[in-house]
């Protein structure tokens, strides 16, 4: 009893200091997360906003662009990241120096780099078309005024910008595999493909799939690659949902912008649910 009486005031003091220390984080969460999300949902509460949104001729092509962007760009990005992670995992000095150069696109700010690419793709005086004319004596295409080409270039820019980060994630996953597994496979006469199939892939499969799902969520909310490169042009034919919301904000149609975000939730929530379910399932298997 005396021990409990001595502990009780000390425990009460710990609780008080714990509440004091956690209060700023709770306040920041309420101000910068709960309030903006709640206010955005409140702005998007009017059913007329969704009716006019669905009637907008730009909306349906934007949804299709978003789906194509997610399916093509993310999968190509991770296929390349998986291949390059096998290259950069080699312990050679020149590969290490090359990896430093490789990470630069991800490390530098998006605005100047994507704008520089936009200038390079200018059909009249851009570097790309100038090189095409000098090498082949033909005029280069209008990269950013042809909708399919402009969308393709936006996906290439997205892959180029994000590829180093996800490659490093997969490199870390490969480095976590015990080297003894590869040595045992070599003793058994396994080929490089068999080592990847039976050693590498089973070890990094969860990391690969989880990173892919996380990238899908981030890419859905990423507007830099499209907005800075094409601005949704020409004729609003290269918009994705993230840039369409910005278009409505610039037109002073805030309710439509918020409705665009709400419409994107059916894309996001299943991805979050599937990712969390997969992670919890893997933790249960591990335990």
From the structure above, extract its key features.
287 residues, mainly alpha, MetI-like fold, 13 helices, 81% helix, globular
Describe the structure.
- The structure is a single chain.
- With 287 residues, the protein is mainly α.
- The protein folds into two domains: 1-43; 58-286, MetI-like fold.
- 81% of the residues lie in helices and 0% in strands.
- The chain has helices at 2-43, 47-55, 59-88, 93-102, 104-107, 110-120, 127-136, 147-175, 179-187, 192-221, 224-229, 241-250, 254-286.
- α3 (59-88) packs parallel to α8 and α3 runs antiparallel to α10 (192-221).
- The protein starts with a helix and ends with a helix.
Count of extended strands: 0
Please indicate the percent range of residues in DSSP E strands (runs of 2 or more): under 5%
Question: Helix-strand pattern, N to C?
Answer: HHHHHHHHHHHHH
CATH class of the largest domain: Mainly Alpha
Give the biggest beta sheet: none
* Oligomer description: single chain
Amino-to-carboxy terminus distance: 38 Å
Shape: globular
CATH-wise, what's the superfamily of the largest domain?
A: MetI-like
CATH topology of the largest domain: MetI-like fold
Share of helix, binned: over 70%
Unreliable runs: none
List the helices and strands and how they pair.
Elements: H1 2-43, H2 47-55, H3 59-88, H4 93-102, H5 104-107, H6 110-120, H7 127-136, H8 147-175, H9 179-187, H10 192-221, H11 224-229, H12 241-250, H13 254-286
Helix pairs in contact: 2-13, 3-8, 3-10, 8-10, 10-13, 12-13
